[in-house]
Task: inverse folding
């Protein structure tokens, strides 16, 4: 029986599991582990379950110990559970082949490459993945085959966009039946539109669909969960549950760190924002000393064991000494006085905090600094506070950028058109693709601004960022090929050169001292190297080891960091900064400066 | 009434708003096509990326693409005769080829041919 009274973690969700279960939340809150544990628990109840990852930076493989691809595969050790991964890049390749494959023999090679080029844009990649997602929601055969389909989704902003696309595209296709080619061959458009509408019906039906908002007992993730709850409501997706992952109870009251850790969580849970307090009985998942990996780990997560016995923990060398903070990194950037610093990494690792700390430190040293974010769900202003001299805080807001871009295109290109032309142009600009392009232009402008000042860019989570960088490459090719039209802006033309110039762009990979974030950062580093961008350094954030806890569970958790700290230092990074865990996320210029200079508590 | 087939190169969308920059000529042509349709002429527009099959099944178009490469498109076929290749025609040209009446030519921008004024073909078509 799946009952809440036994105290089984996720019991509430499991007892009321609908056919479709979505797990969403800020990166790093444990979406993949809770989604996987749910899928395993449902399968253990003799249900047939499909677990799907739609995250471009999925770590499902690592958590479950199987290689998931486009075709569902069995998970060894769990009867009835299959797993698959919708990889956007892979989906785009399949999709391209489906379009051009039949014409390889009839059309000239140059035409084939033209089509392939067109179908490589960021927008097409997104659509290809989206179509696969929609197919899963609307395929009746799949619905017959699986009692539950569990989605481990991409980080919140991206997920919401994904979920809102059916209505966005349906509306767009109604007013513009010619459509945009990003959607694929026109012959399929009608059928596709029907599937989008069907998908929307499924998502809005509380009998069939539950969205599990996963959060940690921290202010940032909770705020993001509230935003997600509200936006999902607006899309008509009202059946939601709250899951709080990593709830900790201190076992020693002489460890201020442990007490602070517990208090912080309690304070957050007691004062849940109004948008979340209506979600009755959140499922609480206890904090575990180690990340559950593999099927036994996931099962144990739902029936937690007592914490490990205390053991003497010798701090890791990388967390000690003066060089451990951000000051060495700041020294070098300060010297050049200009250029771009980008913080990259999986969502939730503290990119915004690191970016803000570095920006504040450089501004305090008297350098003109701009701190900018491209993350749709970022909170830079809250983190920095106000009144830091030399520091300007800006944000690339997709909605505002889209409006501004639309207006400028209508003004520039529209001036050369007659009335009918302007009307058509305005209609086409309502395409959801316009946002991608608008954000891209803003990104290029931000990068260009670093010619005479220091620009610190807090980027969006990994997958999205990669698509952005990839877009810059395909853009370059499109610009090269373009024969008519408006001249491209100098910022977009020089973007790639700037990003690949180590004297101009310094990428900081931000990670946590845990398995998945480190491996994802390493994979991101590989991708960046392939794109000609060599990351300057690594920042290991929220290290318990650096904060020296006494509580046995926290000390056990601190000891698990060592192998990852060693791995970062020895295998991945040339410059490393390790930042200690803090009870309160640093807010305001004073705290950020303390973090940046590496002073100890 | 005439039938007009337009073979577009691979475009993100008919007005090009999805690309790196907007080409007003493309948007104007979309408006002209819409006008042509309203005069009763049957107009069909095919994108290389969206309907490659329409290109593949017309040997005239594939031959043109083999010969002229990337410069072949866009191509316009009126009543089975290739009228235009390598650029978009003006509203006046469309009217001329189809017998449609126009009081208002399209704006000068779209009316400027690149090198020649015969749309890459002879006065009687290609």
Result:
């Amino acid at each position: 029986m799946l009952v809440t009274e036994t105290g089984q973690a996720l019991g509430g969700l499991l007892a009321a599991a609908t056919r479709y279960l979505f797990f969403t939340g800020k990166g790093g809150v444990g979406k993949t582990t809770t989604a996987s544990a749910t899928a395993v628990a449902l399968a253990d109840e003799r249900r047939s379950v499909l677990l799907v990852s739609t995250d471009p930076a999925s770590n499902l493989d690592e958590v479950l110990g199987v290689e998931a691809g486009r075709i569902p595969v069995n998970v060894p050790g769990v009867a009835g559970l299959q797993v698959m991964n919708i990889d956007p890049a892979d989906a785009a390749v399949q999709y391209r082949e489906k379009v051009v494959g039949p014409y390889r023999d009839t059309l000239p090679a140059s035409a084939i490459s033209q089509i392939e080029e067109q179908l490589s844009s960021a927008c097409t990649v997104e659509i290809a993945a989206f179509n696969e997602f929609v197919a899963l929601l609307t395929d009746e055969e799949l619905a017959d085959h699986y009692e539950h389909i569990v989605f481990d989704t991409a980080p919140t902003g991206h997920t919401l966009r994904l979920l809102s696309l059916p209505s966005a595209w349906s509306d767009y296709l109604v007013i513009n039946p010619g459509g945009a080619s990003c959607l694929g061959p026109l012959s399929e458009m009608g059928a596709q539109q029907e599937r989008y509408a069907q998908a929307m019906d499924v998502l809005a039906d509380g009998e069939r669909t539950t969205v599990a908002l996963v959060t940690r007992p921290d202010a940032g993730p909770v705020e993001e969960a509230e935003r997600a709850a509200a936006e999902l409501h607006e899309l008509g997706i009202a059946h939601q549950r709250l899951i709080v992952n990593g709830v900790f109870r201190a076992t020693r009251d002489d460890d201020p760190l442990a007490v602070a850790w517990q208090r912080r969580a309690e304070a957050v849970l007691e004062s849940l924002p109004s948008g979340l307090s209506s979600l009755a009985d959140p499922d609480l998942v206890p904090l575990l000393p180690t990340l559950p990996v593999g099927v036994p780990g996931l099962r144990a997560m739902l029936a937690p064991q007592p914490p490990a016995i205390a053991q003497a923990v010798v701090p890791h060398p990388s967390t000690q000494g003066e060089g451990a903070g951000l000051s060495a990194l700041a020294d070098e950037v300060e010297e050049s006085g200009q250029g771009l610093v980008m913080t990259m990494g999986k969502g939730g690792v503290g990119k915004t905090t690191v970016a803000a700390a570095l920006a504040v430190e450089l501004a305090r040293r008297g350098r003109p600094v701009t701190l900018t974010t491209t993350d749709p769900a970022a909170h830079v202003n809250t983190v920095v506070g106000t009144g830091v001299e030399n520091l300007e805080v800006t944000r690339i807001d997709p909605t505002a950028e889209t409006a501004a871009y639309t207006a400028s295109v209508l003004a520039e290109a529209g001036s050369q058109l007659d009335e009918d032309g302007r009307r058509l142009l305005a209609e086409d600009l309502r395409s959801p693709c316009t946002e991608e392009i608008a954000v891209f232009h803003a990104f290029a402008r931000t990068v260009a601004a670093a010619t005479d000042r220091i620009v610190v860019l807090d980027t969006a989570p990994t997958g999205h960022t990669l698509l952005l960088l990839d877009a810059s490459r395909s853009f370059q090719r499109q610009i090269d090929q373009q024969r008519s039209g408006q001249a491209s802006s100098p910022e977009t033309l020089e973007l790639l050169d700037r990003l690949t110039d180590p004297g101009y762009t310094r990428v900081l990979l931000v990670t946590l001292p845990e398995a998945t974030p480190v491996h994802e950062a390493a994979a991101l580093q590989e991708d960046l190297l392939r794109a000609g961008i060599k990351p300057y350094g690594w920042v290991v954030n929220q290290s318990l080891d650096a904060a020296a806890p006494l509580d046995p569970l926290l000390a056990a958790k601190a000891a698990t960091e060592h192998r990852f700290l060693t791995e970062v230092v020895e295998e991945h990074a040339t410059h490393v900064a390790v930042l200690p865990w803090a009870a309160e996320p640093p807010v305001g210029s004073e705290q950020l400066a303390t973090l940046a200079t590496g002073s100890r508590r | 009434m005439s039938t007009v087939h337009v073979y577009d190169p691979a475009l993100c969308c008919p007005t090009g708003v999805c690309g790196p920059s907007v080409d007003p000529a493309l948007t104007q042509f979309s408006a002209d096509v819409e006008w042509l349709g309203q005069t009763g002429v049957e107009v069909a527009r095919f994108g290389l990326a969206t309907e490659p099959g329409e290109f593949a099944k017309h040997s005239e178009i594939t031959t043109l693409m083999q010969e002229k490469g990337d410069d072949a498109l866009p191509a316009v076929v009126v009543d089975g005769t290739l009228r235009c290749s390598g650029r978009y025609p003006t509203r006046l040209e469309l009217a001329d080829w189809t017998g449609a009446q126009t009081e208002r030519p399209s704006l000068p921008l779209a009316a400027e041919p690149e090198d020649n004024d015969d749309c890459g073909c002879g006065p009687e078509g290609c």
Notes: Helices of chain B lie at 24-38, 52-56, 59-68, 91-98, 108-111. The two ends of chain B are 21 Å apart (CA to CA).
